[in-house]
Amino acid sequence: MQPQYILTDKMLNRVVGISELTALLVLEKRALHLRKENRIRSIQSSLAIENNSLTLEQVTDIIDGKRVLGAPKEIHEVQNAYEAYERVFQLNPYRVDDFLRAHRLLTKDLVKRSGQFRAGDVGVYDSQGTVVHVGARPQFVPKLVQDLFEWAEKSTLPDLIKSCIVHFELEIIHPFEDGNGRMGRLWQSLILYQWQDIFEWIPVETVIYEHQQTYYDSLSLSNHQNDATIFIEFMLDAILETLQEYSLKEKSDKMSDKELLYFKLLEKYLKKHGVIASRDFQNLSNLSPSAARRYLTRFTDLGLLVKKGQNRNRQYQLRQDLS
Ligand SMILES: Nc1ncnc2c1ncn2[C@@H]1O[C@H](COP(=O)(O)OP(=O)(O)OP(=O)(O)O)[C@@H](O)[C@H]1O
């Protein structure tokens, strides 16, 4: 099999941006304490995409073994997903057996053919109940998945791009009765983890959930064009955004509420205008000249801003990987 896609400038730029930010996070050995919280965010978001209504707090309580009032099926989905995410990163992303094992973990006691490819046809429906995609005929599914994994294992593409293609092709094949979205997202995380192990803890699913309609639209467009390009670009954007949010969250944990407020104001301005001088920040924030300068210095020290120019010509911009 040879998936169809075009390598675009946008993809290459995203790959560079993601690689830089990942290297920085690895180097700084970021936030081990955030691991569990991030895992919970991944699970809650991936389940929310498939309409599980449990909140982040409820998901946290379930995982902590507390009693939660909710639909038993939804609670069971959380418990299964937690188990799957705990064990999936030891699996081989190019082995069909491992793929089925992960599906079994994710859907145990919830679907009839848990851990097995489907035996009948399957459709994907939009919110109006219209069929938007029909999966491959069931008799072809095992071979299609096998071929996809063989292609992926041999491919010399960067893992970042490869993981998006595998996610896309899995949705096109739609190998299971249920759980195809969750499995596609989980399998992409596993391939990303093989590239850089911090991806075990990076909740890309949350950004997909925040852009759920664009996720569906890009799947649909790529599907119609029989070419993964649009979907790859969407996913690389989502990965970059996740890393940027992660990086910012880390830094914002070190800021006071007041600092956070002024930084948000500044960030909005810089995303529009690119650079800011101390005097402009002073006008924007109504701070005194010395307070404005103090905040700019603090944000620079935190690594959120970089300085350009000297003395009276000094300006500030967002660190490149955050803009
Ligand atoms: N037009 C489309 N073509 C191909 N795949 C699509 C399309 N629209 C959505 N999908 C994929 O199908 C998934 C839904 O399939 P399925 O219901 O089997 O998965 P799920 O994990 O049970 O639910 P969900 O994916 O909603 O979490 C979506 O999450 C998405 O990944």
From TrEMBL:
The record marks E50 as: Important for autoinhibition of adenylyltransferase activity. The keyword ATP-binding applies. Keywords: ATP-binding, Nucleotide-binding. GO terms for molecular function: ATP binding. ATP binds at residues 124-133, 178-185, 215-216, 223. Residues 94-237 form the Fido domain. Coiled coil: none annotated. The keyword ATP-binding applies. InterPro entries: Fido, Fido-like_dom_sf, Fido_containing, WH-like_DNA-bd_sf, WH_DNA-bd_sf. Pfam families: Fic (PF02661). This is Huntington interacting protein HYPE. It comes from Streptococcus merionis.
